[in-house]
Write a structure and sequence with these properties.
The chain has 21 helices and 20 strands. It is globular and about 70 Å long. By secondary structure, the protein is α/β, with parallel strands linked by helices. 39% of the residues lie in helices and 17% in strands. The longest helix is centred in the C-terminal third of the chain and has 18 residues, at 514-531. The structure holds thiamine diphosphate (TPP) and magnesium ion. Thiamine diphosphate is lined by residues 390-393, 415-418, 441-444, 469, 471-475.
């Protein structure tokens, strides 16, 4: 039958494969190493949108964020050596955040391989510790097989990044091969015996706590989980930057277990008698650097449910380890009969602690950041997406914002700076009808501020906020703790951010006191949507406002005394 199948180049087969697997968008910085793919994408432009970024790291972050927002693999194309090394930050982020993503890299032609020819790197070696799988496609007639495996791997078990190298000469070779079936998501299900054992453990518990995290959640799974919370009355916490898995406004939500955790919640994690950890990895950020939950056998009884079997028993010896996808586990939980009377007061107190912790407090200076975030939580539409990168400014978002549901938060669990701008762009590409706010630090913003040009080029009305304290504040904080009064390498002289935004064709405003923020934000949204262009609001904060609960001077004084 092969004779009836038209002959196509490997590049055309690859693009057909993307279409068959449901890809509607790809991010790239072009390179001569994969011109044949670009050409095949030209023919497929009605089905697959190509978003061209200004830096390969920006493109890779966009693909990663697109994966987060859509729950499907984000697709990125970059060129060899320089493109691949720039893009590696997106692969690292996808790995730590368990985000499905596929990075394609143009590779030197086979005839020059292994000579350290121009921009040559062996990607199998380079990405081996960072990706779920790295391979090089050497034959046109196996392109479908490699892509199918890539999609299955990216989406199954614990999702993550896959890297595929594409030798330039391979891309123009031809083959006549039949189209593949689109990929299926493969996830395990909990056994009845697991659910029975869980039921027994809940029956004995007096101070249980649920910690949610990870990425294989669906809207339905979150709905099932919510029904379970209501039936059982269990307190629900979320792990670092997975705060949108459970409606923060719901009475069962008690806060996030991550950087800058509410001390009362930390104490609750420590003194719980049963931890039901669903989808979270139990990494450094979720365990208070392994102090709230101590390895190897925690004081709390531990039930750990994870989509990746390799995560179970990795650090902690649990009471019950369950390998399951989130939809499968949440569906089973929904049917579990649990009497929650034993922990009613425990949960109510945890919720009261959360409400108390998230009541806006004052910081030094004329701009009150907590009030601004509280204003956003009151005024943003229910489905608005809030993106951010890394820095102490993000502490105000995780503490004072209330995420209403799945895929309203796009933020890196690996604390990777420069994420907020490309993530905002990708979120708006994925969800053009939703309000997208990208909140950045001044250091953070300038790591990928060039992607404002991408937002302008594709007429994306993203609202960028830059929280400017003229320093790499997080590092200054650590510096004052460890080496007080020896400020070095952490001070920044910044451009006029509003002026910079205008140079990109975006609206720009500067906020120097709290009351200016709300009208500036409302103007930004209205103007950006009407003119189909991004907007930027620089918020100048007092450098003393170093965290949500302390000042730089207080940290320095404490360190000098100690
Ligand atoms: C890509 C990357 N480079 C460096 C760091 C180390 N780092 C963590 S936070 C931070 C400073 C953040 O500064 P800014 O964005 O201005 O936020 P602030 O802490 O001042 O609120 C740095 C340099 C990092 N996390 N990621
Ligand atoms: Mg800063």
């Amino acid at each position: 039958m092969a004779g009836t199948i038209p002959s196509r180049t490997a590049a055309q087969i690859l693009v057909d494969s993307l279409r068959i697997h449901g890809v509607d968008t790809a991010f790239c910085v072009p390179g001569e190493s994969y011109l044949a793919v670009l050409d095949a994408l030209y023919d497929a432009r009605g089905a697959i949108r190509l978003i061209v970024a200004r830096q390969d790291g920006g493109a890779a972050y966009m693909a990663e964020a697109y994966g987060k927002v859509t729950g499907k693999p984000g697709i990125c194309f970059v060129t060899r050596g320089p493109g691949a090394t720039n893009a590696s930050i997106g692969v690292h982020t996808a790995q730590q955040d368990s985000t499905p993503m596929i990075l394609f890299i143009g590779q030197v032609p086979g005839e020059f391989a292994d000579r350290e020819s121009f921009q040559e790197i062996d990607y199998r070696l380079m990405f081996a510790p960072m990706a779920k799988w790295v391979a090089q496609i050497d034959r046109a007639d196996r392109v479908h097989e490699y892509l199918s495996h890539a999609f299955h791997l990216a989406m199954s078990g614990r999702p993550g990044p896959v890297v595929l190298a594409l030798p330039e000469d391979m891309l123009t070779q031809t083959a006549s091969i039949p189209d593949p079936a689109s990929y299926q998501v493969v996830q395990a299900s909990p056994a009845d015996a697991d659910m029975a054992k869980l039921s027994g453990l809940l029956g004995e518990a007096k101070r249980p706590l649920v910690i949610l995290g990870g990425t294989v959640w669906t809207r339905e799974a979150c709905g099932d989980l919510r029904a379970f919370a209501e039936n059982s009355g269990l307190p629900i916490a979320c792990s670092f930057r997975f705060q949108d898995l459970f409606d923060n406004r719901d009475d069962h939500y008690v806060g996030d277990v991550g950087i800058g955790i509410n001390p009362r919640l930390a104490e609750r994690v420590r003194t719980a008698d049963l931890l039901l950890v669903i989808g979270a990895r139990l990494g450094e950020m979720t365990t208070g650097a392994y102090t709230l939950v101590e390895p190897p056998r925690p004081r709390q009884k531990l039930v750990h449910v994870h989509a990746g079997a390799e995560e179970l028993g990795r650090v902690y010896q649990g009471e019950l380890l369950i390998n399951s996808g989130m939809p499968q586990f949440a569906a089973a939980l929904k049917n579990l009969k649990v009497n929650g009377s034993a922990w009613k007061a425990w949960r109510e107190q945890a919720r009261a602690d959360y409400l108390e912790w998230t009541r806006p407090n004052a910081n030094p200076g004329r701009v009150q950041l907590a009030e601004i975030v509280a204003w956003l939580r009151e005024h943003l539409p229910e489905d608005a997406i809030v993106a951010n990168g890394a820095g102490n400014f993000a502490g105000w978002i995780s503490r004072f914002y209330r995420y209403p549901g799945l895929r309203t938060q796009v933020a890196p669990t690996n604390g990777s700076m420069g994420y907020g701008v490309p993530a905002g762009v990708a979120a708006k590409v994925a969800c053009p009808d939703r309000v997208v706010v990208s909140i950045n630090g001044d250091g953070d913003f300038l790591m990928n501020g060039q992607e404002l040009a991408t937002a302008a080029q594709y007429e994306l009305p993203v609202i960028f906020v830059v929280v400017n304290n003229s320093m790499y504040g997080t590092i200054r904080m650590h510096q004052e703790r460890e080496y007080p009064a020896r400020v070095y390498g952490t001070t920044l002289r910044n451009p006029d951010f509003a002026g910079l935004a205008r140079a990109y064709g975006a609206n720009g405003e500067t906020v120097e006191e709290t009351a200016q923020f709300a009208p500036a934000f409302e103007r930004a949204v209205k103007e950006a949507e009407a003119a189909r262009r991004p907007a930027l609001i620089e918020v100048r904060i007092d450098p003393q406002a170093i965290t949500t609960s302390t000042t730089l001077d207080a940290i320095r004084a404490r360190s000098l005394k100690g």
